[in-house]
TrEMBL record, chain A:
It comes from the Bacteria. Keywords: 2Fe-2S, Iron, Iron-sulfur, Metal-binding, Oxidoreductase. PROSITE patterns: 2FE2S_FER_1, 2FE2S_FER_2. The keyword Protein biosynthesis does not apply. It comes from Acuticoccus mangrovi. One of its GO terms (molecular function) is 2 iron, 2 sulfur cluster binding. InterPro entries: 2Fe-2S-bd, 2Fe-2S-bd_dom_sf, 2Fe-2S_ferredoxin-like_sf, 2Fe-2S_ferredoxin-type, 2Fe2S_fd_BS, Beta-grasp_dom_sf, Diverse_Oxidoreductases. Residues 3-79 form the 2Fe-2S ferredoxin-type domain. This is (2Fe-2S)-binding protein.
From TrEMBL, chain B:
The keyword Oxidoreductase applies. It comes from the Bacteria. It holds the Pfam family CO_deh_flav_C. This is FAD binding domain-containing protein. The keyword Cell membrane does not apply. Keywords: FAD, Flavoprotein, Oxidoreductase. PROSITE patterns: FAD_PCMH. Residues 1-176 form the FAD-binding PCMH-type domain. One of its GO terms (molecular function) is FAD binding. Gene3D superfamilies: 3.30.465.10, CO dehydrogenase flavoprotein, C-terminal domain, Uridine Diphospho-n-acetylenolpyruvylglucosamine Reductase, domain 2.
Length: 161, 303
Protein backbone atom coordinates (compact mmCIF):
# COMPACT_ATOMS: atom_id res chain seq x y z
CA UNK A 1 0.00 0.00 0.00
CA UNK A 2 1.15 3.53 -0.61
CA UNK A 3 0.26 6.73 1.16
CA UNK A 4 1.29 10.35 1.52
CA UNK A 5 3.59 11.20 4.40
CA UNK A 6 3.94 14.83 5.48
CA UNK A 7 6.79 16.15 7.57
CA UNK A 8 9.13 19.10 7.92
CA UNK A 9 12.31 18.37 5.98
CA UNK A 10 15.15 20.74 6.83
CA UNK A 11 12.50 23.25 7.84
CA UNK A 12 10.44 22.93 4.67
CA UNK A 13 6.96 21.37 4.73
CA UNK A 14 7.25 18.28 2.57
CA UNK A 15 4.80 15.65 1.29
CA UNK A 16 6.04 12.39 -0.22
CA UNK A 17 4.12 9.46 -1.67
CA UNK A 18 5.70 6.32 -0.25
CA UNK A 19 4.95 2.61 -0.05
CA UNK A 20 4.42 1.34 3.50
CA UNK A 21 7.65 -0.64 3.39
CA UNK A 22 9.79 2.30 2.27
CA UNK A 23 12.41 3.27 4.84
CA UNK A 24 12.91 6.90 5.75
CA UNK A 25 16.37 6.67 4.20
CA UNK A 26 15.00 5.58 0.82
CA UNK A 27 12.23 8.18 0.97
CA UNK A 28 14.78 10.93 1.58
CA UNK A 29 17.07 9.79 -1.22
CA UNK A 30 14.60 8.61 -3.86
CA UNK A 31 11.52 10.65 -2.98
CA UNK A 32 12.91 13.95 -1.73
CA UNK A 33 16.06 13.59 -3.88
CA UNK A 34 18.28 14.53 -0.95
CA UNK A 35 21.16 12.14 -1.54
CA UNK A 36 23.36 13.48 1.24
CA UNK A 37 21.93 10.75 3.46
CA UNK A 38 24.05 7.73 2.56
CA UNK A 39 23.01 4.10 2.74
CA UNK A 40 25.78 1.75 3.78
CA UNK A 41 24.68 -1.44 5.45
CA UNK A 42 20.88 -0.91 5.42
CA UNK A 43 20.52 -2.80 8.68
CA UNK A 44 21.51 -0.36 11.38
CA UNK A 45 25.19 -1.10 11.88
CA UNK A 46 27.19 1.51 9.96
CA UNK A 47 25.47 4.79 10.90
CA UNK A 48 25.95 6.40 7.48
CA UNK A 49 22.20 7.07 7.11
CA UNK A 50 21.81 8.86 10.45
CA UNK A 51 19.34 11.77 10.33
CA UNK A 52 17.81 13.89 13.08
CA UNK A 53 14.12 13.22 13.81
CA UNK A 54 12.47 15.51 16.35
CA UNK A 55 15.90 16.44 17.67
CA UNK A 56 17.19 12.88 18.02
CA UNK A 57 19.86 11.22 15.89
CA UNK A 58 18.35 8.03 14.47
CA UNK A 59 19.16 5.44 11.80
CA UNK A 60 17.04 6.37 8.78
CA UNK A 61 17.30 2.75 7.55
CA UNK A 62 15.66 1.47 10.76
CA UNK A 63 12.60 3.66 10.48
CA UNK A 64 9.74 3.55 8.02
CA UNK A 65 9.00 6.75 6.13
CA UNK A 66 5.38 6.53 7.31
CA UNK A 67 6.65 6.72 10.92
CA UNK A 68 8.05 10.18 10.18
CA UNK A 69 4.56 11.56 9.52
CA UNK A 70 4.27 14.83 11.43
CA UNK A 71 7.93 14.80 12.47
CA UNK A 72 10.69 17.38 12.11
CA UNK A 73 13.45 15.76 10.02
CA UNK A 74 16.91 17.26 9.52
CA UNK A 75 19.41 15.71 7.09
CA UNK A 76 23.02 16.63 6.42
CA UNK A 77 21.76 19.13 3.81
CA UNK A 78 20.04 20.96 6.66
CA UNK A 79 23.29 21.55 8.57
CA UNK A 80 24.59 24.12 6.11
CA UNK A 81 23.46 27.74 6.32
CA UNK A 82 20.67 28.53 3.86
CA UNK A 83 22.77 31.22 2.19
CA UNK A 84 25.51 28.73 1.37
CA UNK A 85 28.83 27.86 2.94
CA UNK A 86 29.38 25.43 5.78
CA UNK A 87 27.92 25.04 9.24
CA UNK A 88 30.28 25.26 12.25
CA UNK A 89 30.68 21.50 12.53
CA UNK A 90 31.19 21.08 8.79
CA UNK A 91 33.80 23.84 8.82
CA UNK A 92 35.63 22.09 11.66
CA UNK A 93 35.62 18.82 9.68
CA UNK A 94 37.11 20.72 6.74
CA UNK A 95 39.83 22.30 8.87
CA UNK A 96 40.78 19.10 10.69
CA UNK A 97 40.73 16.81 7.63
CA UNK A 98 38.06 14.78 9.39
CA UNK A 99 37.04 12.92 6.24
CA UNK A 100 38.70 11.15 3.38
CA UNK A 101 36.30 9.29 1.10
CA UNK A 102 33.35 11.04 2.74
CA UNK A 103 30.89 8.17 2.61
CA UNK A 104 30.33 8.00 6.38
CA UNK A 105 30.58 11.77 6.88
CA UNK A 106 26.87 12.71 6.58
CA UNK A 107 25.94 10.27 9.33
CA UNK A 108 28.76 11.45 11.56
CA UNK A 109 27.87 15.11 11.02
CA UNK A 110 24.19 14.57 11.84
CA UNK A 111 25.02 12.43 14.88
CA UNK A 112 27.50 14.93 16.27
CA UNK A 113 25.25 17.89 15.47
CA UNK A 114 22.45 16.30 17.49
CA UNK A 115 24.88 15.51 20.32
CA UNK A 116 26.42 18.99 20.52
CA UNK A 117 23.05 20.71 20.19
CA UNK A 118 21.89 18.84 23.27
CA UNK A 119 25.23 18.49 25.06
CA UNK A 120 27.57 21.32 24.01
CA UNK A 121 29.82 20.41 26.97
CA UNK A 122 30.28 16.80 25.79
CA UNK A 123 33.82 15.71 26.67
CA UNK A 124 36.11 13.54 24.58
CA UNK A 125 34.99 10.34 26.33
CA UNK A 126 31.35 11.14 25.57
CA UNK A 127 32.14 12.03 21.96
CA UNK A 128 34.08 8.78 21.52
CA UNK A 129 31.23 6.78 23.05
CA UNK A 130 28.63 8.33 20.75
CA UNK A 131 30.93 8.05 17.72
CA UNK A 132 31.05 4.28 18.29
CA UNK A 133 27.72 4.15 16.44
CA UNK A 134 29.32 5.32 13.18
CA UNK A 135 31.81 3.31 11.14
CA UNK A 136 34.59 5.12 9.27
CA UNK A 137 37.18 3.12 7.33
CA UNK A 138 39.45 6.00 6.26
CA UNK A 139 40.30 8.40 9.04
CA UNK A 140 41.06 6.29 12.07
CA UNK A 141 38.58 8.59 13.86
CA UNK A 142 41.20 10.85 15.51
CA UNK A 143 40.69 13.84 13.19
CA UNK A 144 36.92 13.41 13.58
CA UNK A 145 37.23 13.64 17.34
CA UNK A 146 39.49 16.69 17.00
CA UNK A 147 36.97 18.39 14.70
CA UNK A 148 34.02 17.72 17.00
CA UNK A 149 35.98 18.96 20.01
CA UNK A 150 36.88 22.12 18.10
CA UNK A 151 33.28 22.77 17.03
CA UNK A 152 31.89 22.69 20.56
CA UNK A 153 32.53 26.39 21.11
CA UNK A 154 30.11 27.36 18.35
CA UNK A 155 27.34 25.27 19.92
CA UNK A 156 27.99 26.80 23.35
CA UNK A 157 27.83 30.34 21.99
CA UNK A 158 24.99 30.17 19.55
CA UNK A 159 22.91 27.09 20.10
CA UNK A 160 23.52 26.38 16.41
CA UNK A 161 20.46 25.03 14.66
CA UNK B 1 18.41 -5.47 1.34
CA UNK B 2 15.15 -3.59 0.88
CA UNK B 3 12.30 -4.65 3.13
CA UNK B 4 9.81 -7.26 1.92
CA UNK B 5 6.36 -5.94 1.03
CA UNK B 6 4.48 -5.20 4.23
CA UNK B 7 1.47 -3.11 5.20
CA UNK B 8 1.52 -0.57 8.03
CA UNK B 9 -1.11 0.29 10.62
CA UNK B 10 -0.89 2.84 13.39
CA UNK B 11 -3.68 2.19 15.93
CA UNK B 12 -4.74 4.86 18.41
CA UNK B 13 -5.49 2.50 21.30
CA UNK B 14 -4.29 -0.75 22.85
CA UNK B 15 -7.64 -2.40 22.09
CA UNK B 16 -7.33 -1.43 18.45
CA UNK B 17 -3.78 -2.82 18.33
CA UNK B 18 -4.93 -6.12 19.88
CA UNK B 19 -7.80 -6.32 17.37
CA UNK B 20 -5.41 -5.75 14.46
CA UNK B 21 -3.16 -8.56 15.71
CA UNK B 22 -6.14 -10.85 16.24
CA UNK B 23 -7.38 -10.20 12.70
CA UNK B 24 -4.19 -11.41 11.02
CA UNK B 25 -1.92 -14.29 12.10
CA UNK B 26 0.99 -12.79 10.20
CA UNK B 27 0.72 -9.34 11.78
CA UNK B 28 3.62 -8.18 13.93
CA UNK B 29 4.05 -5.43 16.51
CA UNK B 30 6.42 -2.58 15.60
CA UNK B 31 7.77 -0.70 18.62
CA UNK B 32 11.14 1.05 18.25
CA UNK B 33 11.98 -1.18 15.30
CA UNK B 34 15.67 -1.39 16.15
CA UNK B 35 15.65 -5.21 16.07
CA UNK B 36 12.66 -5.87 13.82
CA UNK B 37 13.74 -3.55 11.00
CA UNK B 38 17.12 -5.32 10.59
CA UNK B 39 15.27 -8.66 10.57
CA UNK B 40 13.04 -7.33 7.80
CA UNK B 41 16.09 -6.05 5.92
CA UNK B 42 17.68 -9.51 6.14
CA UNK B 43 14.28 -10.98 5.29
CA UNK B 44 14.41 -13.13 8.39
CA UNK B 45 10.93 -11.82 9.13
CA UNK B 46 8.17 -11.22 6.61
CA UNK B 47 5.02 -10.15 8.44
CA UNK B 48 1.92 -9.17 6.47
CA UNK B 49 1.33 -6.02 8.48
CA UNK B 50 3.30 -3.98 11.00
CA UNK B 51 1.18 -2.66 13.86
CA UNK B 52 3.00 0.43 15.13
CA UNK B 53 2.47 1.20 18.83
CA UNK B 54 3.68 4.80 18.62
CA UNK B 55 0.23 6.35 19.00
CA UNK B 56 -1.05 3.98 21.70
CA UNK B 57 -1.40 6.16 24.80
CA UNK B 58 0.09 5.29 28.17
CA UNK B 59 2.90 3.00 27.05
CA UNK B 60 5.65 5.62 27.34
CA UNK B 61 5.50 6.25 31.09
CA UNK B 62 8.04 5.60 33.81
CA UNK B 63 6.46 5.48 37.28
CA UNK B 64 8.14 4.79 40.61
CA UNK B 65 6.10 4.08 43.75
CA UNK B 66 6.09 1.85 46.81
CA UNK B 67 5.35 -1.17 44.60
CA UNK B 68 8.49 -0.62 42.56
CA UNK B 69 9.39 0.79 39.17
CA UNK B 70 6.92 0.54 36.30
CA UNK B 71 8.26 1.08 32.79
CA UNK B 72 5.88 1.22 29.83
CA UNK B 73 6.82 -0.94 26.88
CA UNK B 74 7.29 2.05 24.55
CA UNK B 75 9.81 3.73 26.87
CA UNK B 76 13.09 4.16 25.00
CA UNK B 77 16.59 3.52 26.34
CA UNK B 78 17.15 7.23 25.95
CA UNK B 79 14.21 8.06 28.23
CA UNK B 80 15.59 5.67 30.84
CA UNK B 81 19.07 7.19 30.54
CA UNK B 82 17.62 10.65 31.12
CA UNK B 83 15.60 9.68 34.20
CA UNK B 84 17.46 10.52 37.42
CA UNK B 85 14.66 8.92 39.41
CA UNK B 86 15.19 5.65 37.55
CA UNK B 87 18.95 5.73 38.17
CA UNK B 88 18.28 6.12 41.89
CA UNK B 89 15.54 3.49 42.10
CA UNK B 90 17.04 0.88 39.75
CA UNK B 91 20.82 1.27 39.66
CA UNK B 92 21.40 -2.14 38.05
CA UNK B 93 19.19 -1.23 35.08
CA UNK B 94 20.89 2.16 34.88
CA UNK B 95 24.30 0.45 34.85
CA UNK B 96 23.23 -1.75 31.94
CA UNK B 97 21.94 1.10 29.73
CA UNK B 98 25.27 2.37 28.33
CA UNK B 99 26.01 -1.15 27.08
CA UNK B 100 22.83 -1.36 25.03
CA UNK B 101 23.66 -0.86 21.34
CA UNK B 102 24.65 2.64 20.20
CA UNK B 103 23.50 6.22 20.79
CA UNK B 104 21.27 6.33 17.70
CA UNK B 105 19.75 2.92 18.45
CA UNK B 106 19.08 3.90 22.08
CA UNK B 107 17.17 6.92 20.80
CA UNK B 108 14.51 4.65 19.31
CA UNK B 109 14.90 1.20 20.83
CA UNK B 110 12.36 0.31 23.50
CA UNK B 111 12.03 -1.78 26.65
CA UNK B 112 9.08 -3.75 25.29
CA UNK B 113 10.85 -4.41 22.02
CA UNK B 114 13.89 -5.86 23.78
CA UNK B 115 11.76 -8.10 26.00
CA UNK B 116 9.59 -9.38 23.14
CA UNK B 117 12.56 -9.85 20.81
CA UNK B 118 14.37 -11.88 23.52
CA UNK B 119 17.81 -11.90 21.97
CA UNK B 120 20.02 -14.23 24.07
CA UNK B 121 22.78 -11.61 24.17
CA UNK B 122 20.51 -8.70 25.13
CA UNK B 123 21.04 -6.89 28.43
CA UNK B 124 17.49 -6.22 29.59
CA UNK B 125 16.31 -9.85 29.83
CA UNK B 126 19.25 -10.63 32.15
CA UNK B 127 18.58 -7.54 34.25
CA UNK B 128 14.89 -8.48 34.47
CA UNK B 129 15.84 -11.98 35.60
CA UNK B 130 18.27 -10.72 38.24
CA UNK B 131 15.77 -8.22 39.62
CA UNK B 132 12.88 -10.72 39.67
CA UNK B 133 10.91 -8.48 37.33
CA UNK B 134 7.41 -9.07 36.05
CA UNK B 135 6.37 -8.49 32.46
CA UNK B 136 2.85 -7.25 31.84
CA UNK B 137 1.19 -8.21 28.59
CA UNK B 138 -2.23 -7.61 27.04
CA UNK B 139 -4.08 -9.71 24.50
CA UNK B 140 -7.49 -10.90 23.38
CA UNK B 141 -7.94 -12.68 26.74
CA UNK B 142 -7.09 -9.54 28.67
CA UNK B 143 -3.99 -8.46 30.59
CA UNK B 144 -1.73 -10.82 32.55
CA UNK B 145 1.63 -10.74 34.27
CA UNK B 146 4.49 -13.15 33.66
CA UNK B 147 7.58 -13.49 35.87
CA UNK B 148 10.86 -12.92 34.05
CA UNK B 149 11.96 -16.47 34.97
CA UNK B 150 8.97 -17.82 33.01
CA UNK B 151 9.02 -15.31 30.15
CA UNK B 152 12.19 -16.18 28.23
CA UNK B 153 11.77 -19.65 26.75
CA UNK B 154 14.46 -19.78 24.08
CA UNK B 155 16.36 -17.70 21.56
CA UNK B 156 13.87 -15.06 20.41
CA UNK B 157 11.10 -17.13 21.97
CA UNK B 158 8.94 -15.90 24.84
CA UNK B 159 5.83 -16.88 26.77
CA UNK B 160 3.81 -14.34 24.75
CA UNK B 161 0.75 -16.01 23.26
CA UNK B 162 -0.25 -15.16 19.69
CA UNK B 163 -1.89 -11.75 19.69
CA UNK B 164 -0.35 -10.61 22.96
CA UNK B 165 1.57 -7.35 23.34
CA UNK B 166 4.12 -6.45 26.02
CA UNK B 167 2.74 -3.38 27.79
CA UNK B 168 5.03 -2.85 30.79
CA UNK B 169 7.98 -4.03 32.83
CA UNK B 170 7.56 -4.02 36.61
CA UNK B 171 10.67 -4.05 38.79
CA UNK B 172 10.24 -4.64 42.54
CA UNK B 173 11.56 -1.97 44.90
CA UNK B 174 15.02 -2.54 46.34
CA UNK B 175 16.45 -1.27 49.63
CA UNK B 176 18.85 1.63 49.13
CA UNK B 177 21.65 -0.50 50.57
CA UNK B 178 21.45 -3.18 47.87
CA UNK B 179 24.63 -3.67 45.86
CA UNK B 180 24.76 -4.38 42.13
CA UNK B 181 27.24 -5.15 39.39
CA UNK B 182 27.00 -5.25 35.60
CA UNK B 183 29.72 -6.32 33.18
CA UNK B 184 29.76 -7.44 29.59
CA UNK B 185 32.33 -7.95 26.88
CA UNK B 186 31.79 -7.31 23.20
CA UNK B 187 34.41 -7.12 20.49
CA UNK B 188 33.41 -3.56 19.68
CA UNK B 189 31.49 -1.01 21.73
CA UNK B 190 27.77 -1.49 21.19
CA UNK B 191 28.05 -4.95 19.66
CA UNK B 192 26.17 -7.88 21.12
CA UNK B 193 27.95 -9.29 24.14
CA UNK B 194 29.98 -12.48 23.90
CA UNK B 195 29.11 -12.86 27.58
CA UNK B 196 27.74 -10.67 30.34
CA UNK B 197 26.77 -10.64 34.01
CA UNK B 198 24.06 -8.79 35.94
CA UNK B 199 24.04 -9.29 39.70
CA UNK B 200 22.57 -7.87 42.88
CA UNK B 201 23.23 -8.75 46.50
CA UNK B 202 23.10 -7.45 50.05
CA UNK B 203 26.05 -7.10 52.40
CA UNK B 204 24.99 -7.47 56.01
CA UNK B 205 26.71 -7.26 59.37
CA UNK B 206 25.86 -9.98 61.88
CA UNK B 207 23.39 -8.64 64.41
CA UNK B 208 25.29 -10.06 67.39
CA UNK B 209 28.11 -7.53 67.89
CA UNK B 210 29.60 -9.55 70.75
CA UNK B 211 30.76 -12.19 68.25
CA UNK B 212 34.41 -12.88 67.76
CA UNK B 213 35.95 -10.36 65.42
CA UNK B 214 36.48 -12.73 62.51
CA UNK B 215 32.91 -13.96 62.72
CA UNK B 216 31.55 -10.42 62.75
CA UNK B 217 32.79 -9.65 59.24
CA UNK B 218 30.21 -8.36 56.71
CA UNK B 219 28.64 -11.21 54.77
CA UNK B 220 26.91 -11.63 51.42
CA UNK B 221 23.21 -12.38 51.43
CA UNK B 222 20.64 -13.01 48.74
CA UNK B 223 22.93 -12.82 45.71
CA UNK B 224 21.03 -13.02 42.43
CA UNK B 225 23.20 -13.47 39.37
CA UNK B 226 22.18 -13.78 35.72
CA UNK B 227 24.51 -14.52 32.81
CA UNK B 228 23.68 -13.62 29.23
CA UNK B 229 25.20 -14.32 25.84
CA UNK B 230 26.20 -17.86 26.86
CA UNK B 231 22.98 -19.79 26.15
CA UNK B 232 19.72 -19.30 24.28
CA UNK B 233 18.18 -17.59 27.32
CA UNK B 234 19.65 -15.60 30.19
CA UNK B 235 20.60 -18.01 32.98
CA UNK B 236 20.60 -17.66 36.76
CA UNK B 237 23.92 -18.96 38.11
CA UNK B 238 22.46 -21.02 40.96
CA UNK B 239 25.73 -22.69 41.94
CA UNK B 240 27.51 -19.36 42.20
CA UNK B 241 24.67 -17.85 44.21
CA UNK B 242 24.83 -20.81 46.60
CA UNK B 243 28.60 -20.47 46.96
CA UNK B 244 28.20 -16.82 47.90
CA UNK B 245 25.39 -17.17 50.43
CA UNK B 246 26.80 -16.18 53.81
CA UNK B 247 30.32 -15.76 52.44
CA UNK B 248 32.52 -13.07 53.94
CA UNK B 249 32.27 -10.06 51.63
CA UNK B 250 35.90 -9.77 50.57
CA UNK B 251 38.30 -10.92 47.86
CA UNK B 252 37.87 -14.55 48.92
CA UNK B 253 34.24 -14.35 47.83
CA UNK B 254 35.31 -13.15 44.40
CA UNK B 255 37.68 -16.08 44.03
CA UNK B 256 35.03 -18.52 45.24
CA UNK B 257 32.47 -17.12 42.80
CA UNK B 258 34.86 -17.41 39.86
CA UNK B 259 35.69 -21.00 40.82
CA UNK B 260 32.01 -21.91 41.18
CA UNK B 261 31.30 -20.32 37.81
CA UNK B 262 34.03 -22.27 36.02
CA UNK B 263 32.91 -25.50 37.69
CA UNK B 264 29.20 -25.12 36.97
CA UNK B 265 28.68 -23.22 33.73
CA UNK B 266 28.79 -24.84 30.29
CA UNK B 267 28.34 -22.03 27.78
CA UNK B 268 27.35 -22.54 24.17
CA UNK B 269 30.21 -22.06 21.75
CA UNK B 270 30.00 -20.49 18.32
CA UNK B 271 32.48 -19.44 15.65
CA UNK B 272 33.12 -16.08 17.35
CA UNK B 273 33.96 -17.61 20.74
CA UNK B 274 34.18 -21.25 21.73
CA UNK B 275 32.76 -22.68 24.95
CA UNK B 276 36.05 -22.72 26.88
CA UNK B 277 36.74 -19.08 26.04
CA UNK B 278 33.22 -18.04 26.97
CA UNK B 279 33.48 -19.87 30.31
CA UNK B 280 36.75 -18.12 31.16
CA UNK B 281 35.36 -14.78 29.99
CA UNK B 282 32.19 -15.20 32.02
CA UNK B 283 34.15 -16.01 35.19
CA UNK B 284 36.31 -12.93 34.68
CA UNK B 285 33.25 -10.72 34.15
CA UNK B 286 31.58 -12.25 37.20
CA UNK B 287 34.66 -11.49 39.31
CA UNK B 288 34.69 -7.88 38.12
CA UNK B 289 30.97 -7.37 38.68
CA UNK B 290 31.15 -8.91 42.13
CA UNK B 291 34.22 -6.90 43.12
CA UNK B 292 32.45 -3.75 41.93
CA UNK B 293 29.40 -4.61 44.03
CA UNK B 294 31.47 -5.34 47.12
CA UNK B 295 33.75 -2.32 46.81
CA UNK B 296 31.15 0.29 46.05
CA UNK B 297 28.55 0.80 48.72
CA UNK B 298 25.50 2.41 47.17
CA UNK B 299 25.40 6.18 47.41
CA UNK B 300 22.81 7.59 49.74
CA UNK B 301 19.63 7.80 47.76
CA UNK B 302 16.65 10.03 48.23
CA UNK B 303 13.68 8.00 49.41
Amino acid sequence: MSRTVRFALNGVATALDVADRTTLADALRDGARLTGTHLGCEHGVCGACTVIVDGLAVRACLMLAVQADGADVVTVEGLAPRDGGLGALQQAFHEHHALQCGFCTPGILTTMHALLTEEPEADEARIRDVLSGNLCRCTGYLPIIAAVMAARGAYRREGVE
Amino acid sequence: MKLPPVAYRCPESLDEAIALLAADDEAQILSGGQSLMPMLAFRLAAPSVLVDLRRVPGLDRIAIDAEGTHVGSRVTWRALERSHALAAAQPLLAAALPHIAHYQIRNRGTVGGSLAHADPAAELPAVALTLDATIEVAGPAGPRRIGAQDFFLGAMTTALEPGEIVTALHLPPAPATRRHGFEEFARRRGDFALAGIALSLDVTLPLDVTMARDRAAPRIEGARIAAFGIADVPLRLDAVEAALEGAVADASAVAAAEAACVASVTPDGDPSADAAYRRALLATLLGRALACALENPPAERAA
